[in-house]
Structure formats: C-alpha cells, structure tokens
Amino acid sequence: MGGIRDFRWGDAAEEDDGIEGVLPPTQVIGPDEKGIKIIIEWRKDDEGKRTKVTKTVRVKKQVKKLNPAAIRRRSLKKFGDALSQNASENRTVVSTEEIFLERTRPAGAKQEAEKGADLALLGNASLIVCRTCGKKGDHWTSKCPFKELAASKNFPGAGEKPPTDEDVPGMSGGAGGKGSYVPPSMRGAKGNEGESMKRPGRDDNSIRVTNLSEDTREQDLQELFRPFGNISRIYVAFDRETGLSRGFAFINFVNRDDAIRAINKLDGYGYDNLILRVEWATPRADRS
Amino acid sequence: MRPILLKGHERPLTFLKYNRDGDLLFSCAKDHTPTVWYASNGERLGTYKGHNGAVWCCDVSRDSTRLVTSSADQTVKLWDCETGVQLHSFNFDAPARAVSFAEGDKMVVITTDPFMEQQSAIHVKRIESDRSLQSSEDVLTITGPQGRINRAMWGPLNKTIISAGEDATIRIWDAETGKLLKESDPETGHQKVITAMAKSADGSHFITGSHDKSAKLWDIRTLQMLKTYTTERPVNAAAISPLLDHVVIGGGQEASQVTMTSTRAGKFEAKFFHKIFEEEIGGVKGHFGPINALVFNPDGRSFSSGGEDGYVRVHFFDSDYYHIKV
Q1: Contact A92 B313 (CB under 8 A)
Q2: pTM of this prediction?
Q3: How does residue B181 score in pLDDT terms, banded at 50, 70 and 90?
Q4: What is the largest CA-CA distance in chain B?
Q5: What structural domains and CATH numbers belong to chain A?
Q6: Is A109 on the interface with B (CB under 8 A)?
Q7: Does pLDDT of B39 surpass 50?
Q8: A67 contacts in B (CB within 8 Å)?
Q9: CA distance readout (Å), A45 to A26, A35, A49, A51, A162
Q10: Is B299 near chain A, with CB under 8 Å?
Q11: Structural class in CATH, domain B6-238
C-alpha cells in the first residue's frame, strides 16, 4: 500500500460513477506495540470535494474469562415447552421501566427533604391565601393550623382580647351570659374550646340573626336565607344544658353582596311572630 | 437497571436457583413445570415436564448436569439438566417440600410434609452416578420436628443437616446418625414460621427468613445467632450476596391479603441490608405480589426475584451499586 496515488482531476470527472476507482483506498497503520492504530480514509462529499480523514485509535485487549462449560451450554438444544415456543409468545421481556435500588435515607435527611417540599409549596403561586397566618397556597383560612396562635401573634386584632372571652356563643354556650359574638380570630389562646370548632367559621361575610324564636332550626334559616345567595355555613346557638335555642344564629354567605342584600331585606322582618334583627356579625368601622 | 422479566409460569413462583457457573437459572412454581433460563439474557432453555403438583424446591448439581426437584405430587424427581429427561423419581407418601444436594452430589436431602397422620420427615437418599444402580431407599430418615420443614441443607463437609420450618426452630442433625445436635434458642431465634434459608458463598454462615418479619444470620457450626435484620412485612425469601457484604430480603403481606390493599401498601420490595451493620441500604421494587424467592447470581453482579405474581425478575446491578457507602 503506497501513499497517495497519482491521478489527474480529469480522470475523476470521467470516472464519476466509480468512486472507489477515484478515491485512494483506506489505509490502516498499526496497531503498534502501544496498541495505537491509525486509519486514513478518503471521502467525497456532495460537492465532490475530497476529504482525508485520519483516525487514531487505541486498541485494547480485554480479557474476559468465560467458563467453557457455560459456553458449551449456550448452544444447547431447547427442550420441553421451550421447543414449541413461537415468536409471539414473548416469554422474556426487558422491563420498560427503569428500576433503581432506592436508597433508604437516614432519618435526618428525610426530615430535611420534607422541609424543602414544604417550602416549595410556599413558593407556588396559588390563589389560596390564609387570612390568619398569611401563608400562601398551603391551606384554607378555616384549616389554618395556627388558628389558636393567631390571636396572640400575628393577627391584627390580637391585642384586644375581649373580656367576654368565656361567653363565646357556640363555644361555651352554657353560661348564657351576654351572648355577644366574638369572632374566632378575636378569641384569646384561653379559648381552648375553639380547637373543637375547626369547621369553616371565619368568613368575613358572616351575619348575625337575633330575636329568633326558640324552635327555629338550621333548616328554617336555610329556607329563609337561601334565596339571597350561596350560604357556606349556618350556625344556630343552642343552650348546651337545656337543648333549647338561644335565639340567635350566624349565617355565612359566600358572597358579600348577598349578605348585604339579606341584611337589607330581612332586618326587621317578621318571622314566627318575632321581629328579626339581622346585622353584620363583626361590627367594624368600615361596615357600619 | 432494567430487569429482565421472565413470564414462564402461570402460578406463583416458589423457588429460584442459579447453577454454580451462574449461566443458568432454574425456577420452580406452583404450576408443575420447573423451567431453566439463560441467566444472561433470560432466554428460556427448557422445561422439565412430569410433575403433577406444585414444585416447591429444586437443586442443581455442581457440574450442572443433574437437577432435582421436589413437588407436592409426593415425588422428588431427578432430571438431566440439559435435555429435560427424567432420570429417576423418588416416591413418597407425603408432599415433598425441600431438597438439596450434598457437597459432591452423591447424596440428597429431602423433606416431606406432615400428611394423613404422618409426621414430617427428613430423608437422605443416595444418588448413584450409574443410573441402573439408583435405588429409592432412604439412607437415613429423621423425624421429630412438628409441622412442615420448609428448608433443609447440608452443613460443612456433609457432616450435618440443617433444617428449619413451621415450628420456627432451626435444628442441626448429625448426617450420619440422625441425632439432633443443636437447636436454635427460642429466645433469640425466630418467633414464627421460617420460610427461607440460604447459605453464604463460603458456607460458613447462613440466613433465615421468617414470618416474624425478620431475617437472621447464623453461624453454621455453632448455630449462634449473629445478626438480625428487621423489616415491616413477613419475610418469604432471603439471600446473601457472594460479592459484597449485603443481604437481600423479600416478602410481603400474606397472599390472601394482597387484593385488599394497594401495591404500595404491600411493600413488595426486595430489601437490601448491610450484612454486618444490619442497616437497610435500599429497596428494589417491581413485583406486584409478595416475593417468594430471591437468589444472587454466584458472581454477585445480578440477582433474581420470583413473586406471587408469577414473574421472575432478573436484575443486573448498575455500576453505582458497587460503590454504595453505608
């Protein structure tokens, strides 16, 4: 095998169809004692230009020991059911799923990972914002785990703990005291009973209905207030000891506008021989 | 790793065994036909047809020419490994449970279940190299343990026979006289049925798995308990890695309970533990039924699991498996 063969470009044009005839043959040098092999190739691209490609390769011999018995067994004839096996049977399948040896993390690492997940949740832009703790996307206001803490910590009205704390209707209904509603957010940490009231009850669109007759039930109020809009909660205060209605109830509307309309319509409305009083449950400056 | 799935059995797997060279994998299932596969690519080489009941256990001779299988059809059959021809059938009066070749393949130990007012028993048979001389006579019969003897194997130099089963006790018997030599301590030993038993590569210790949700490592001579690996599910299978200081444990809830819960709750994982530190390394998922059989390839670079779901999964370890730090 000599070097590059002498030829004229005119020859190339004539023998265009026989590329092999034009391009010098591939040359292989080596492998030498270091296992290095040089391969020289000639190529012709679309435009007819010739390119010389020189590849340097290291040849390495890897010794893999095989058991002669195992090699012999590789060519064994099939027997039993394997004989009649047709191609469609698919006895052997390589899993399409990548399976890993899932490492068991030490306890400490696990906790950290969970923390991270929590933070990731926080980072999510979500419509859910807790009005108690201000956390975004974690939970609804009503499900806030910091409900109790909120009163003493970060809720705006936390400082002014009302003195009527103990008489919170629906919480400790038995006392039958002043009966003024104190929103859960205003209840101090003292009101441990609040813990039991995890149901939705913290909506702003809450109205108070007083001067109800004793035999008014939730059902009746539902009928009375439903026409104004969607109701999320109805709470009728009952005396825990006597089981009688204490004559007032709270109704939460989904929409504030519905609540306003209900107040306008039903305040002073005659119901069961009594004149209802309907007002905002939490009197605030901006609402009066 | 992408395991190879072998779908040769229609019923739950009961036992898996590699030959000594690690190129063949034998699988036993409740569907009467033990099957042999090429371990490297999962190709089915053949099946051994002749049993008429669930096949509980098998063993292959050191030179991979003979296979012995034990079945619920009250027989233990000896096969030519490479052609699937039945060479001999040992008949019993009770379902045969465990079977194991002695070192040198001259003898075989067989256990039979309690059946029709018969006690469970351990039988030792001689295997003749000349087939015409093969007899079905017992060389030795041992009775005594209550309940099924789920596993039996030979101790060092064939001097002892180790058995374990439903009475949760591991026993070492003299292989010559049949005398009981040692019994596992009920305090430190298993509390429930022992379902699995496997020797280490050098035969100096062995692992047992039990429904008491633990696997234990024992010294084969002194029957001293060395290690305990606890998990949260009953253990059906256990194996010791011949390459690294790992053991693998498989199991899952009772088969009858499987449909009651999701696969996630079933914990049908093969769990890897560090043999010495008893620390859990990790788990390999995939089966959708309890794992009934686990075995390492003798080179330690792959392992196979057989499940109640009828699949055998052959796993070849990724390179990072060899660098796991505990």
Answers
A1: no
A2: 0.62
A3: very high
A4: 55
A5: 27-58 (no CATH), 206-280 (3.30.70.330)
A6: no
A7: yes
A8: 21, 23
A9: 16, 31, 6, 8, 90
A10: no
A11: mainly beta
